[in-house]
């Protein structure tokens, strides 16, 4: 069934599918880990049981999301060797060490403290447990640091040398590679997006329970905290997005041309195309709704500033405009919708009606998944806008794929789709089930199975009490 399909298209579809599934979970767990650290810190500072209840409530959700993120992320590295072996060979001397640093720092940090965070509250001191929670939060941020450094270098490669065999080799300064021109902008924009994603999930859960019971103290607190995040961080995110766009215009102008839908150059000021239907074959945007000179004002801060169009870029080097054009608008539209919710919540808070406006709660509930959609749309804009390059200006995507037949790639793609939807649908359903239950006073944490083995193998020696002081069943005392 794949005999007439290009193997390159299938390999790109497979990577896009798996990375989109994976990216959902880190975008949530990065923000949620920090939220948990804030909740535990507030509990230690104020002694209020409510913060501890919310910590335990969201800890269970974090555990499931974190696990699904780890499992889906493992698949990504294998694809570098299966579908993208030429890319691994050519860019491996630069990409490999950076990804290894992510494992040696972030993954080990998370793995080392995750068990204490999940199961250690009754086994270690409060301060030590809080330190473990902070280390897990730091680990998620460190993971984002290295992965985004890798991706940013692929977008704006610097500090490299070309070897005699054609490999891309690191130059004398790793700092130049790690802190490449687009990295600071992409890091801040992506991490802030993760915080907003988490805020709107927390806000949606709080809104759901407020609609059922406006007096629920736990729902009030999580909704209030989420709306503060939306009101304060959404405008910052829009500012960071603008700065990131200006950086992209400097280093990847063709991507910005595709985002803006500028097929033609505009020497006297470019219009901002709000909507339209890009026709790449005809090199025009049909039925365009425009604001004159607004694009020049945004990108050059001058109404009459000239802007180049895709007519200055060879057709073979142009990204797929239709995809980039619409994914960018989805991301920006949701960003301004988040800002609107934040402003709405500020108005309600000023009037003392934050918990009494059901339409605000309904809007926040609808916006619950908006962060996930926005980060995926942003990721599509970034990655599709880079095409036809996998390492911008150095290695084309068509030249980076493994020499595999289409049926082999297509078969693995179908397997991924079936397994991912089967496994992650169940995990997502379980997370939604946890969210549907309201947090309550003296919320239970993650419970250990009373019948689970103390050790993974062998015979348990010694006394009949385990370290937690639990009396063992008779058949396990030997």
UniProtKB/TrEMBL annotation:
Residues 444-478 are annotated as: Disordered. It is a multi-pass membrane protein. Signal peptide: none annotated. InterPro entries: Cyt-d_ubiquinol_oxidase_su_1. Pfam families: Cyt_bd_oxida_I (PF01654). The keyword Repeat does not apply. The chain crosses the membrane at residues 20-45, 57-78, 98-121, 128-148, 192-211, 223-240, 323-347, 359-380, 400-432. It is found in: Cell inner membrane; Cell membrane. Keywords: Cell membrane, Electron transport, Heme, Iron, Membrane, Metal-binding, Transmembrane, Transmembrane helix, Transport. Its main location: membrane. Belongs to the cytochrome ubiquinol oxidase subunit 1 family. This is Cytochrome ubiquinol oxidase subunit I.
């Amino acid at each position: 069934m794949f005999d007439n399909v290009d193997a390159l298209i299938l390999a790109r579809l497979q990577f896009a599918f798996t990375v989109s599934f994976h990216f959902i979970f880190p975008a949530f767990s990065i923000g949620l880990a920090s939220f948990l650290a804030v909740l535990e810190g507030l509990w230690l500072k104020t002694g209020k049981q409510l913060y501890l209840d919310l910590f335990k409530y969201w800890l269970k959700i974090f555990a499931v999301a974190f696990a699904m993120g780890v499992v889906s992320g493992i698949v990504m590295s294998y694809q570098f060797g299966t579908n993208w072996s030429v890319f691994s060979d050519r860019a491996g001397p630069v990409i490999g060490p950076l990804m290894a640093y992510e494992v040696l720092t972030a993954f080990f940090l998370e793995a080392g403290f995750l068990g204490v965070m999940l199961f250690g509250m009754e086994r270690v001191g409060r301060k030590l447990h809080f330190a473990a929670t902070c280390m897990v939060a730091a680990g998620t941020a460190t993971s984002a640091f290295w992965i985004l450094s890798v991706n940013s270098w692929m977008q704006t490669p610097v500090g490299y040398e070309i070897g005699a065999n054609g490999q891309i080799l690191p130059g004398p300064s790793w700092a130049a590679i790690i802190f490449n021109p687009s990295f600071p902008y992409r890091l801040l924009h992506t991490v802030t997006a993760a915080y907003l994603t988490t805020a709107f999930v927390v806000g949606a859960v709080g809104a759901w329970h407020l609609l059922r019971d406006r007096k629920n103290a736990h729902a009030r607190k999580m909704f209030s905290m989420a709306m503060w995040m939306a009101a304060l961080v959404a405008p910052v995110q829009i500012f960071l997005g603008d700065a990131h766009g200006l950086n992209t215009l400097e280093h990847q102008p063709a991507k910005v041309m595709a985002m803006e839908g500028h097929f033609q150059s505009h020497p006297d000021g470019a219009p901002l195309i709000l909507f339209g239907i890009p026709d790449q074959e005809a090199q025009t945007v049909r039925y365009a709704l425009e604001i004159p000179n607004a694009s020049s004002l945004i990108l050059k801060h001058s109404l009459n500033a000239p802007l180049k169009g895709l007519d200055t870029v060879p057709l073979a080097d142009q990204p797929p405009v239709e995809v980039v054009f619409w994914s960018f608008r989805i991301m920006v539209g949701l960003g301004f919708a988040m800002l609107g919710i934040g402003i709405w919540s500020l108005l309600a808070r000023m009037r003392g009606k934050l918990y009494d406006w059901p339409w605000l709660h309904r809007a926040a509930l609808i916006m619950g998944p908006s962060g996930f959609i926005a980060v995926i749309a942003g990721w599509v804009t970034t990655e599709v806008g880079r095409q036809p390059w996998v390492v911008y200006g150095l290695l084309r995507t068509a030249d980076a794929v493994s020499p595999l037949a289409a049926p082999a790639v297509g078969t693995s793609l179908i397997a991924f789709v079936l397994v991912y939807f089967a496994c992650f649908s169940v995990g997502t359903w379980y997370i939604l089930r946890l969210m549907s239950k309201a947090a309550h006073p003296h919320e239970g944490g993650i419970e250990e199975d009373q019948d689970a083995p103390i050790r993974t193998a062998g015979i348990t020696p010694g006394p009949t009490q385990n370290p937690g002081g639990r009396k063992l069943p008779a058949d396990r005392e030997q």
